[in-house]
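Minimal example, chain plus iron/sulfur cluster.
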Amino acid sequence: MVPHKVGHITNFCTLPFLWSYYTKVFVIIAFIKGTGGAGKLGMKYEGMIIRPPSEARSLLLQISVGCSHNRCTFCSTYKGEQFRIKTFEEIEEDIIEASGYGPIEKIFLCDGDALILPMKKLVPILESINTHIKGVQRIGLYANAKSVLRKTPEELAQLRDLGIGIAYLGMETGNDDILMAIDKGANSRQMVEAGRKIKDVGITLSVTVLLGIGGRTQSEEHALDTARVLTEIDPDYVGALTVMVVPGTPLYEEQLSGRFELPDQFGFLRELEVMIAESDFTDCLFTSNHASNYLPIRARMPHEKEETVRLIRHVIASSNKRMLRPEYMRGL
Ligand code: SF4
């Protein structure tokens, strides 16, 4: 996934919207409306809420809490949180609440892998959105390989017809040994199958990869296999993030014991360079502008491939850390 934590919903500053003037007004109105005479509290969120950076302007509708997989060794997002699917009544209350906010163009269904919901739960939610909220042009969600592979092409087409316009697939790496080591729950073949399945029904596909997840020892295989698998999937978007080892995760324990060592800053960039240089896309926006990255890139492939590779090589050759995002400005 392409996570961007927006935190626990405790005050206005952590509400899950782009903190622009527009959304600030939008959310404050929603909050005031919600806490008015009826005594409601606006839309309800539980636990940690994350969304992809590109969904910053979307309404976040929480349909499940946590992640049904919750085993990836690098991920701390939902640790200790029990996965549950919200009841239809809870979700519809939020949908009706949001319908009072005015036209909403984009909705993102939270949490970690919303596509895991069975069709009998997902379809009524989408129908309710279409009934109550005006102006919706796209509904997005996180999908892991398992959740995609459980759906038939017909079911995915039905979800597309009901408004699902984009799915974010957390692949992290195309290397099978690393996928197994990080307990991702799928191998590279399944990643390709899941990605192609999404694309084949006409849902926009965004794939996340994780620089550094192979550590120093598997850095090269990680980059090369990821480029190969990305080429096979041929997604519409690729988002590269850089591993930040979070205390409390199994990966942190591995790092403490010396079994896992991150590449240095330029090592991450070498992986990025290889992933871009060795992959082939029909038409893909490749970004590394997430806050975890040392070098923000936003390039349309294949047209800007050579220029992008040249730029990354130039930064690596310079060994100039001032060309990189400073450590204090990095984050998840
Ligand atoms: S699938 Fe893995 S990375 Fe994504 S939320 Fe679940 S545990 Fe975290």
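The pocket of iron/sulfur cluster is lined by residues 1, 67, 69-72, 75, 77-78, 112-113, 144, 170 (CB under 6 Å). Confidence is low (pLDDT under 50) at residues 1-40.
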